[in-house]
Amino acid sequence: MNKIDTLPFLILTFILSFCTLSSSAQVYSGDSTQTLKAVSVRAYLQEQPLFRLTTSVGHIDSLQLNRHDQTSLLPSLNTVPGVRMEERSPGSFRLSIRGSLLRSPFGVRNVKVYYDEIPLTDAGGNTYLNLIDAASISEINVLKGPDGSLFGANSGGVVLLSPYGSGKHKDEVKASLTAGSYGLFQEQVDIRYQPDDRYRFSFNHAYVSADGYRENSAMSRHFLQTVHRYNYIPTNEIRLLGFYSNMHYLTPGGLNKEQYDEDPTSARKAAGPNPGAAEQKAGIYNKTLFGGIVHDAKISNRLSHVLSVFGTYTDFENPFITNYEFRIEKNYGFRTYFNFQNKQNQDLSWILSAGMEWQKNHASIKNYDNNGGVQGDEQSGDAFRSGQYFYFARFTADWKKRLYVELANSLNYYHYSFKGLYPQAEADFSKIDFQGEWMPRIALSYVLNKELSWRASAGRGYSPPTTAEVRPSDRIINTDLVAETGWNYETGLRWFNQWIQADAGIFYYKMEDGLVRQSRENGAEYFLNAGSVKQRGLELSVHSTLWEADQQRFLKAIQLGSSLTLSKFNFGDYVNDGNDYSGNKLTGVPSTIVVNTVYAKLPKKLSLNIQHTYTSTIPLNDANDVFADSFNLLQAKIDYTTRVSKVGLNLFFSADNILNEKYSLGNDINAYGGRYFNASPLVNFSFGAKIKI
């Protein structure tokens, strides 16, 4: 298939965005309208206007989430420039911000994720984002670039998830069923209810299963989430929130180029002494219970306090090509901070915040022979402990609602310890301590005029090796790994008016001791510090409502959006095993990503959302001698919404990969034997119905 020339499409979208067809003073948002400058996000401990935020942020509300397929967060997150979510096979997700997946064979690393006021990222640095059902999230804010001054260790960015029921409350019951290609089936039930003025709660239940496009790629997940909110006095609230997820997915493994071209649906083949993925029933079994209590109190007109106490229990199994791994992980901790504000002066107001976060993780990791998906004899076992804590402080000043200045810093500590369980039992733990690391941040925004604001920031990134990197799947504990560190500098402009929202930013981040994934002959992975990495990028997004009419018109509303990500990421000084990769392109990062969206409200209560994504070639190894082809991904969703008596009814139909592209969304980087490719499905469909009471 010939590739679509995306440049004219991009230019056309931007031209249309600036050529407004209506003089409307409002922007369409679902069934209501709002001015763009009024949008606020909770990014730094309190609500702030998006227009004046000092950082580059991606804001995804519930309306945007609902425009996409609710089986995954992937299409919504990928509309944010600088953010890339990948799916190697159903259930196997990776999330990166500004190229941070270099060290992520699966899951999320060097990105900090929060669920309300609770860190979803554990003390060992791992985040099981794939456990969460997409419909259980009502809002996502992505803070791009290292931001540890308030959130601790990360070198890629921070993701803030708002679970269903944590925002504005409205009594409702929703239920949906979805079916689709490759055996897709999903059911979801959401309940939100307020029995009295002080107490409200929500429950979410979801089950999803799929056979998958490839051999050995089926998945299933049961998910239950609840949020309880109790205002024991009008200004103080206690929130009890958490989820239980039971997830299983098979891992087909990577294919080399010849295998990928011959039969992209096949699983990894047997090679030498190593059997294939299907023969070994390779996969992941993850049962996790996650939750905590948040106390949010306004002590006085000036002083407020937030305290969260949380814990996680994970039962993890991974039958792999060469072994069968069992892990039990226990994580617990707390986060607390005070906000003191002075808003008595009309021209100058300020806020002082201070607090700390502490986490501890205990893991028991045991490996056995894998006899065709059945546990065999013992191979090795280790007990692993990791802990991290940090203190943080932040001062902000707002002068005449024109100049906003932010000074923040945190002091971060990290350590881990381990001891062998077998074949040789060790009596004591060996401990590795990392010295305390400061993560300062200075930032400002300035309102140039009522439609244009400028921002600039400088901040330090820091991300120590995770448990899964110190003790990777090759089962060799590597105590030589050191933390990634670096300084990030960026600046940008926001142009908001009554009909358009445009955001442009450029950044430069020089990372030292970047961690890079490597793999051995049997497919087991290991990690090493690769030296410096130079990351330069441009991120641009434009969104506009071109038309909004009354109910009598044929076309009731049309919105256009475009985002552009340009990444010039290169290794600095990097020599591995005698090979000099200095100056090469950063592995796994495309240089260009373009996303275009069109949303239209049509007659007969129909709506249409179309999303086109262009991804350029991707270097698959550090040597830059193998690249994944560029590809165009076209997706669409049609909704029909009406009411039957007092029941709202929504019928929907989704199409994915409409152009029937052959592509790999989630390549295995630096794979031994050239097994880089994980084929994604060809054109596929889903349809379903949702009721709302």
TrEMBL record:
Signal peptide (from-to): 1-25
SUPFAM superfamilies to which the protein is assigned, alphabetical: Porins
Record keywords, A-Z: Cell outer membrane, Membrane, Receptor, Signal, TonB box, Transmembrane, Transmembrane beta strand, Transport
Domain called TonB-dependent receptor plug: residue spans: 52-158
Membrane topology category: Multi-pass membrane protein
UniProt key word Transport: yes
Pfam families to which the protein is assigned, alphabetical: Plug, TonB_dep_Rec_b-barrel
InterPro entries associated with the record: Beta-barrel_TonB, Beta-barrel_TonB_sf, Plug_dom, Plug_dom_sf, TonB-dep_rcpt-like
Domain of life (superkingdom): Bacteria
Domain TonB-dependent receptor-like beta-barrel: 261-658
Subcellular location: Cell outer membrane
Region spans: Disordered: 257-278
Family designation: Belongs to the TonB-dependent receptor family.
Name the record gives this protein: TonB-dependent receptor
Native source organism of the sequence: Albibacterium profundi
